[in-house]
Description:
Chain A is mostly beta strands and 111 residues long. Chain A contains no helices and 11 strands. In chain A, strands 2, 4, 5, 9, 10 and 11 form a 6-stranded mixed β-sheet that branches. In chain A, a hairpin with a 5-residue loop joins strand 7 and strand 8. With 115 residues, chain B is an all-beta fold. Chain B contains no helices and 11 strands. Classes of the chains: A mainly beta (111), B mainly beta (115).
Amino acid sequence: GQQLNQSPQSMFIQEGEDVSMNCTSSSIFNTWLWYKQDPGEGPVLLIALYKAGELTSNGRLTAQFGITRKDSFLNISASIPSDVGIYFCAGSLYNNNDMRFGAGTRLTVKP
Amino acid sequence: EAGVTQSPTHLIKTRGQQATLRCSPISGHTSVYWYQQALGLGLQFLLWYDEGEERNRGNFPPRFSGRQFPNYSSELNVNALELEDSALYLCASSPGTGRFPGELFFGEGSRLTVL
């Protein structure tokens, strides 16, 4: 099946710093999404991308769907303590709901 | 509107036993997904149901099975439990194939511990 490689595996940053994480695939995806999982909860959708080259923002979060359709990145600006959690990229083929997830980036924000 | 609900929240079993986990999707959603999240690891795709049919399954042995009922709720069964089956099992729902693909709404999960 398609593999999603997400990096970095973990990040330790100071409050106020910007964060960047990315996801690459060996397959072409038609949809890229980014989710966040808080401790003890299920993942929650942050941003959905449906077109190659698309750049979308949601508050302090910005994500892009790579031109090659094989990668995506998520940036978080001016991090705050509540940004702590695990961030997952996810992708699907053929414009359907068969979603696959990356291994996650664990973000720790030091006050 | 109620979100995705899963039960039980926690389940403790011993090796060789069977576990049944349940999921109720958001009202109006026809697709249900199951994922396994072992401690510290990512989400591994288990099963996808839509309109009562199994659409796809991940790379898991046949002792992982499930079904979707006419009301779109779903059940995940794990037979002959092994220690490595200990994990958080997450259920997610979506409106259905072709509609906002990929926008999954997750429940809080059922934590299965196998002793």
